[in-house]
Design goal:
Elements lengths: L5 H10 L4 H29 L1 H19 L5 H28 L6 H30 L2 H20 L9
Helix pairs in contact: 2-3, 2-4, 3-4, 3-6, 4-5, 5-6
């Protein structure tokens, strides 16, 4: 519910006055980073534990969302979009692994389907409240709220002793 659509990130960058070319370049940088580090992050998760990777991803998300609306320096924005790609690599594969490791063996597909369905509904809700808050209080607040909630989620997951983590 706190991860607004990437389109809103792009709109925020456009609102800051960046050209279409720079905004698209930043989005390409994010996607390239995600594509290049997803497999190595998966290997690392197998070694140190998926839960640690997911928590790391949530912390990275929090950092990116907090600073993205506060930074106007293009090289710093590139760094933040690289971190956002790293977040995506950590979270996207890690969360699905956590779901599988915390569901019954005969319920893996159902658990992933439930997650995918609710992730879509949540994305719609996140876009709605982000747009509403942006309209009523400016673009800084939705990203700050998202950063704080993601950090809270990271802390809750980190300290949750009942969440199993796949680790060799």
């Amino acid at each position: 519910m706190v991860n607004s659509a990437d389109a809103l990130l792009l709109l925020m960058l456009k609102t800051k006055g960046y050209s279409d070319t720079k905004v698209i370049s930043l989005y390409v940088i994010y996607n390239l980073c995600y594509a290049l580090v997803a497999y190595p992050i998966g290997l690392l998760a197998d070694k140190i534990g998926v839960k640690k990777i997911v928590v790391t991803g949530l912390v990275l998300f929090s950092i990116v969302y907090f600073w993205l609306v506060r930074v106007d320096n293009f090289p710093l924005l590139i760094s933040l979009l690289l971190l956002y790609g790293l977040y995506a690599a950590c979270f996207e594969s890690g969360i699905k692994s956590l779901i599988i490791s915390n569901s019954e063996k005969n319920q893996h597909a159902s658990a992933l389907g439930f997650y995918s369905g609710w992730a879509s509904v949540s994305a719609l809700g996140a876009a709605a409240w982000t747009g509403w808050l942006w309209q009523h209080s400016g673009m800084q607040w939705p990203f700050t709220v998202s950063a704080c909630v993601a950090l809270l989620c990271a802390l809750l997951l980190f300290y949750n002793k009942n969440t199993q983590s796949v680790q060799n």
